[in-house]
Amino acid sequence: MSAEVKLDVGTLTVSASPHIRCDESIAKIMWAVNLALAPAALFSVYRFGMPALTTMILCIIVAMGTEYLIQKWQNKPITINDGSAFLTGLLLAMNIPATLPWYMPVFGTVAAIAIAKHTMGGLGYNIFNPALVGRAILLASWPVAMTTWPQMASKIDGVTSATPLGILKLQGYESLVAIFGDKVTMYQSLFFGSRSGSMGETSALLLILGGLFLIYRGYIKWQIPVCMIATVGILTAAFGHDPIMHMMSGGLILGAFFMATDMVTIPITVKGQIIFAVGAGALTVLIRLLGGYPEGVCYAILLMNCVTPLIDLLVKPAKFGARR
Amino acid sequence: MAKTFRGGVHPDDRKRYTAAKPIEVAPIPEKVIIPTRQHIGAPCAPVVKVGDLVKKGQVIAEAQAFVASPIHASTSGKVVEIAEYPHPVFGTCQAVVIESDGQDEWISGLPLNRDWQPLDAKELKEIVRLAGLVGMGGATFPTHVKMSPPPEKPIDSFILNGAECEPYLTADHRVMLEQTERIVTGMKIAMKILGVNKGYVGIEENKPDSIEVMRKACAGSSIEVVPLKTKYPQGAEKTLIKVTLDREVPSGGLPMDVGVVVQNVGTVVAIADAVEKGIPLIERVATVTGGAIAEPKNILVRVGSTFAQAVALCGGFKEQPVKVIMGGPMMGMAQRTLDVPVIKGTSGILALSAADVNIGPEQPCIRCGRCVEACPMGLVPSMLSILGERNVFAVAKEEYNLLDCVECGSCVYVCPAKRNIVHYIKLSKAQNAAAAAAQKK
Question: What are the C-alpha distances in Å from B299 to residues B21, B235, B344?
Answer without folding.
Answer: 9, 22, 14
